[in-house]
Amino acid sequence: MEVPDSPSLNFGTGDLSIDAWFNNGIGPIVSKLSNSGIGYELRSDIIMSTDLPSGTRALILTVVGSEGGLSYYDCGEVPPAPWSHVAAVIDRGTNTAKCYVNGVLSDTITDSIMGSTATAGDSLFIGYNTINSDRYAGIIDEVELFNRALTESEIQDIYNAGAAGKCKDFILMPWDRRPCIGENTVDVAATVCNNSTVPQTYELSSVLPSSYHSQCNFIPTPPIINYNVSPTQITVLPRQCNTFTVQIDVPAGLTASDTACYTATVNNVTAGHNLSNEGSILGPTEWCVVGPPDMAFQTLDLSEPTSVTLNVTNTGDTAKTLDYTLIPVRSDMDESREASLSINGQEPGIGVSDKLFLNPGETGQITFTAALTQRDPFSVAEAILMTDVDGEGIQEPLYSTAFLYRIVDSDEHDDDQLSQILFDGLKNAYDIGDTLTITVAESSGTSRSERVDLWVGAQMPTGELVYITSSPSEPFSLEPLPFKTSLNPSETVHSVFEFQVPSGMEGKYMLYALYAQEGSNPLVADTTVWQSNLITFPIWLAQCLPATYTQSSGLLHFPTVKVAGEPVQVFEANLQLDSLPRVFKFIDATPLPDNAATRAECPIFEPSTGQLHVPAAITTEGSQTIELELQLESPTSLRFNIINVTPSNLSTLF
């Protein structure tokens, strides 16, 4: 791969560090050697050396001084392994170079040429050398160059992070949450993403005042951020995200022109390290903005736009015009780096402007399309709604919406080479007393020739991850254990669990299953040990499934609806959007077993008032969550009027 020449790659007589992962091939790893006679190269090669046994695979550092002269150093044996991490650090002040293999110092070289090494105006190549057209045979990953001398502990930290990536997890707090006038708290989503191959457990440990950015001009007195968090602990599975809901008290004295910043810190209980990220709370204005119903990321597929609607209410006493600009930025507040977010089809990073006129108390909508323009899993960008808040002619943030590149399963495998497994015969909902049978089976048409281990896990309603074992005395384990080991190819159906659902187990559970190489732990090893697809299946125990609304057909389907009374009656029901707007007509209802009455969070119909409350309905187009209040027109009518939609900006669906 060629990287065009750039001032950032020309270190002159400054310090230099290079590191990379490679799969123990032969050839140049990083090369910036020019025919003009200056530059540097880091490569892997088989050498004949007096320092190392003949035929040893070694790390080779080549430097060409600005005054001429070539120095070629074998600076450490590279042991046979699937992957190795190598690094070279050049310190100009001491005329030394230090080489590291797998986090360990392998050689220290002192030579005057180190003090005069320069770089030329030629491209940098990864896996290629222009002088002799030498190519690397293998895979190279995570190449980094630094304009300083990394310390030994920094090299070790990079190595200890593993070949799967240095940034294996992160937390994002939203920028620019502005409460409406009269609100004393704001709810924000602390979203944690895990890009490792291991489930990780997290606890939010602190939210503290911060002045990390020039816009942070307000520090509470006393300097404390009061907050509540739910749940207190979450487990995030590999290549997934999960969210804490953090309710933060609006600091006293915060005005419209103020920005109170904070740093949220999450402890990774599994790995023993902390993650932190900054967010901000802005002072209230007469513009009250409500975003999409999900406080966390809006997930995007590459170059597939999604529509986003912001509800804006004029809470002032006079009519006014919101003169606004939507600006795409990176979530890390590094404004010098381009955001790969396109708004309304514009080039990435280019904002769009418009106006919205509202009378006092009137609510209007700002709708825009967003698309990510480059493949970068776990990258986050934000669209900042800007306006002149204080009338001084300068636009300030009013609200922000975060976008996450949609997380996909590991692409290190060819799925055609993996066994395909599934959960056989499961339903999404079970009531108290129902029999729940968990079976993992291989799909028809797939086969395997090797023995494998079967891993099965369940994420509890609390967020905790447990592993299902085959031990009758200890069927669940908090420690990673396989369900079955050394399954021969003829074993294709696996009975995991069967039990009657007792009271006290209410809630949503997520099941996981995976084949892994015999004797390996897929939670700590590289994902190349996976021998099947990773399957997931959500189950609600004694819990209502959300209603679903299909806009194209107008059908509102209730898997469960309760009719209040003694005793409570339970039905599966359907309503159909009528020809009149915001009116549903009754289609049918099917009685459900008596034990379905134990389900929680169900839509409830109150015959005495004619009201039907729907706490959660999922739109099949767009997967948005809405809350509905419906009112029966009359005791003898079969028509329901919509009297409330939350969030109100989604009322246009009906």
Mean pLDDT, all residues: 82
- Which CATH architecture of the largest domain is right? Sandwich
CATH class of the largest domain: Mainly Beta
Beta strand count: 48
Distance between the ends: 52 Å
How many individual domains?
A: 4
CATH topology of the largest domain: Immunoglobulin-like
Per CATH, the superfamily of the largest domain is Immunoglobulins
Could you characterize the architecture of this molecule?
It is a single chain. This protein has one helix and 48 strands. 33% of the residues are buried. The strands form ten sheets. Strands 41, 42, 43, 44, 45, 46, 47 and 48 form an eight-stranded mixed β-sheet that branches. Strands 32, 34, 35, 36, 37, 39 and 40 form a seven-stranded mixed β-sheet that branches. It has a six-stranded antiparallel β-sheet with strand order 1-10-3-4-5-6, with no helix packed on it. Mean pLDDT is 82; it is low at 407-415. The radius of gyration is 30 Å and the shape is globular. The chain has four domains: 2-160, Jelly Rolls, CATH 2.60.120.200; 169-405, Immunoglobulins (Immunoglobulin-like, Sandwich); 415-541, Immunoglobulin-like (Sandwich), CATH 2.60.40; 547-653, no CATH class. It has 654 residues and is an all-beta fold.
